[in-house]
């Protein structure tokens, strides 16, 4: 599999918006991109079917003919930790079938963007969490940093955890969660000096965070450099 594993400093930091933006940017650069959200918790009943907003966002961002189920192979109704959501439905998260589904979806494109769930370490089933998932996939990691109070600590701890698993942190994206965050520039400077990875962009608080709007704030030089390196491995 060629591509990136997209993780975040926490839940609700904009992983899906950034993944959709990267999908758009890489697609505009001529790559066939397969965005994948292996686990998605939280569905609404719309037009006679259960849908997950994040899966729908990623599905709309791709142009290689993926179905919503190929983008989001395992979806649950309740908006909570996936292992809890699975238990509420009497279902289980099984390692081998989920990995097989991810590989099958990734094979539809030439560059896969696999988005994690929550932060870097979220339980999935006994003895297996999202950090283990990232290791199983072996993809280089892109960290989405939600800019709000506490983000430096969250980002550095996540970067440390990523590297402790033997994974490569190839870049990070700053996403403005709190538009009124004080000392935002100073926080960005501290993150840039401490994360030891290139910044792929700083996305401000957008009124309409479409994939194109997000992509406009991404540094394509860094992103494309690493994507081509990933494809050549």
Automatic annotation (TrEMBL):
Assembly notes: Homodimer.
UniProt-annotated location(s): Cytoplasm
InterPro entries xref list: DTB_synth_BioD (IPR004472), P-loop_NTPase (IPR027417)
Record protein name field: ATP-dependent dethiobiotin synthetase BioD
Cited function: Catalyzes a mechanistically unusual reaction, the ATP-dependent insertion of CO2 between the N7 and N8 nitrogen atoms of 7,8-diaminopelargonic acid (DAPA, also called 7,8-diammoniononanoate) to form a ureido ring.
Active-site feature positions: 37
Reaction(s) this enzyme catalyzes, per UniProt: (7R,8S)-7,8-diammoniononanoate + CO2 + ATP = (4R,5S)-dethiobiotin + ADP + phosphate + 3 H(+)
Pfam families per UniProt: AAA_26
Species: Roseateles oligotrophus
Annotated EC: 6.3.3.3
Superkingdom of origin: Bacteria
UniProt keyword Repressor, yes or no: no
Binding site for Mg(2+): 16, 54, 115
Family as reported in the entry's similarity comment: Belongs to the dethiobiotin synthetase family.
GO molecular function: dethiobiotin synthase activity
Keyword tRNA processing attributed: no
Principal location class: cytoplasm
Recorded metabolic or biological pathway in which this protein acts: Cofactor biosynthesis; biotin biosynthesis; biotin from 7,8-diaminononanoate: step 1/2
Entry keywords, A to Z: ATP-binding, Biotin biosynthesis, Cytoplasm, Ligase, Magnesium, Metal-binding, Nucleotide-binding
Cofactor dependence: Mg(2+)
Binding site for ATP: 54, 115-118, 175-176, 204-206
